[in-house]
Task: inverse folding
């Protein structure tokens, strides 16, 4: 059995769509481990107000969430609702993994020579920070939401079929944070090709204006993991490796001889922005495990 929990406040004024994103985000860890979701328990915070209004907001939010959970064959078995200043939703999710240990996807299985594959574009943190300032274009926000409601379930199954050696889903720690979580226990180094990173429309323009998520500063502390940080700090895509993701894609290492076929299969499944973003390298004596390439 595997277990995961996620909870966060709403970032849009659409309770139904927020419910879909929140459920999809919570299921991400389960898919990334190679598990099948079994049950979920909800915890919701709803702003106080007229009883009919509160009930309507809760109904819309849970309708969106239930659509995602039902599609995943994950039973909503209970939950708890309270009042607060902001609308928020989270789930504790339980899953099951096949008895075969080879079916489990872990963070610590990377091998030198593997190709790093990312299944969704990044940039949700900066885009919704810009959205809160009324500085994001509507089409940027719509495209980001479409990416956020895309389930990682089929993507994880595909990665397993192509022999992924390690996998995780991108969430609040951003690309660099999650990559460090994978390289250190795997005993390897890695390099990221900044030019190859798939980005959501408008993400680079937002960071160029200095608009970043409130979580960005905490993630930037991980710059100490970069071997050539000073050389890359002015690259236009550099800030996006720290950008926190909501319902982000899967980051996986795949054997090099199967990587291109895996990418093609993922794109055919609807992950149209899937890209090879770097490689896993043998561990060196340097304290900084990650190298950036322009």
Result:
């Amino acid at each position: 059995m595997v277990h995961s929990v996620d909870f966060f406040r709403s970032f849009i004024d659409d309770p139904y769509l927020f419910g879909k994103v929140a459920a999809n985000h919570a299921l991400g860890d389960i898919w990334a481990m190679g598990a099948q979701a079994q049950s979920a328990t909800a915890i919701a915070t709803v702003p106080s107000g007229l009883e009919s209004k509160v009930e309507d907001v809760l109904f819309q939010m849970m309708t969106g969430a239930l659509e995602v959970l039902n599609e995943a064959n994950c039973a909503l078995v209970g939950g708890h609702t309270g009042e607060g200043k902001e609308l928020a939703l989270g789930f504790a999710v339980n899953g099951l993994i096949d008895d075969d240990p080879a079916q489990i996807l872990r963070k610590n299985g990377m091998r030198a020579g593997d190709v790093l594959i990312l299944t969704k574009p990044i940039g949700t943190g900066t885009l919704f920070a810009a959205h809160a300032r009324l500085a994001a274009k509507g089409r940027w926000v719509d495209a980001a939401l479409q990416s956020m409601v895309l389930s990682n379930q089929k993507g994880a199954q595909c990665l397993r079929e192509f022999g992924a050696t390690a996998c995780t889903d991108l969430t609040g720690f951003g690309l660099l944070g999650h990559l460090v979580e994978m390289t250190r226990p795997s005993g390897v180094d890695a390099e990221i090709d900044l030019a190859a990173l798939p980005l959501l429309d408008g993400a680079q323009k937002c960071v160029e204006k200095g608009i970043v998520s409130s979580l960005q500063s905490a993630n930037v502390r991980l710059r100490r993991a970069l071997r050539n940080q000073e050389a890359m700090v002015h690259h236009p895509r550099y800030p996006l490796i720290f950008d926190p993701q909501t319902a982000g894609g899967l980051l996986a290492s795949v054997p090099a001889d199967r990587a291109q076929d895996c990418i093609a299969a993922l794109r055919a499944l609807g992950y149209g922005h899937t890209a090879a973003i770097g490689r896993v390298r043998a561990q060196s004596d340097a304290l900084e495990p990650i190298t950036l390439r322009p």
The CA atoms of residues 76 and 118 lie 29 Å apart. DSSP finds ten helices and ten strands in the chain. The chain has two domains: 2-101, 106-293. The mean pLDDT is 96.
